[in-house]
Amino acid sequence: MNNRSLIIFSGIVIGVILILSTYMSTGPYKMTESHTVQRDISRQLPFPSKAVFNQAKVESLTITTEDSPTNDSDKTKGMNTNLETIKAEYRLKFKELQAQTNKDIQALLTQAETDYRAAVTQNEKASLVSFYQRYAKAGQKIEEKTENEFHSIYDQLLTDLAKIGASEEEALEFLEEYETAKDKRKSEILQKAITIVS
């Protein structure tokens, strides 16, 4: 392979990365400002027609449930437990999404390398432009799919946090981790593309 082909292919790869980075980095994800209105559930229970309790005199009565702690520290502890449970659940979902995306990209890069090596071995005049267009388009589809799935999961996370009264700021760590992983993945793709043509 001559230097001209290497320079052209590297330029194409860099162009793809620039296109993907401008496409994918449309700024931080806009968090929704609207919240669903909570329904007021009130139900009138009918009085029983006959006595169902022992007629003994009761000095005091305290009713508690597992979902409603009895004091403020228990409420905070309950919310933190729910928050940590929700975060753990979504951390797993985001890791699964990242693993699937990495698997899809690795398969695409492996196929691109195989096709490129086969073309070079057979002394075919492989058009770097058509080669680039085919794999850039496939890579863009993977990134679009990942982006859509991430934001779908992220929106559900925001909904679940709102249900327990937690701040949307609790979800920011997931957004930041996603953006960091996306940037790292782009740099790894560039390195792999340069390795393929060398």
Explain this structure:
This protein is mainly alpha-helical. The protein has a domain at 1-25 and 87-198. Helices cover 68% and strands 0% of the residues. The chain has helices spanning 3-24, 72-121, 128-163, 172-197. The longest helix is centred in the middle third of the chain and has 50 residues, at 72-121. It is rod-shaped. The model has no long low-confidence stretch (mean pLDDT 75). Keywords: Membrane, Transmembrane, Transmembrane helix. The chain crosses the membrane at residues 6-24.
Strand-helix topology:
Blueprint: H1 3-24, H2 72-121, H3 128-163, H4 172-197
Helix pairs in contact: 1-3, 1-4, 2-3, 2-4
Q: Please tell me the overall pLDDT.
A: 75
Described by its quaternary structure, the protein is single chain
Q: What composes the largest sheet?
A: none
Query: What share of the residues lie within helices?
Result: 55-70%
Q: Could you tell me the radius of gyration in angstroms?
A: 28 Å
Q: What shape does the CA trace take?
A: rod-shaped
Strand content: under 5%
List segments where confidence is low: pLDDT < 50 over at least 5 consecutive residues: none
Query: Number of helix segments?
Result: 4
Question: Which structural category do the helix and sheet elements fall into?
Answer: mainly alpha
DSSP summary, beta strand count: 0
The H/E string reads: HHHH
Keywords: Membrane, Transmembrane, Transmembrane helix
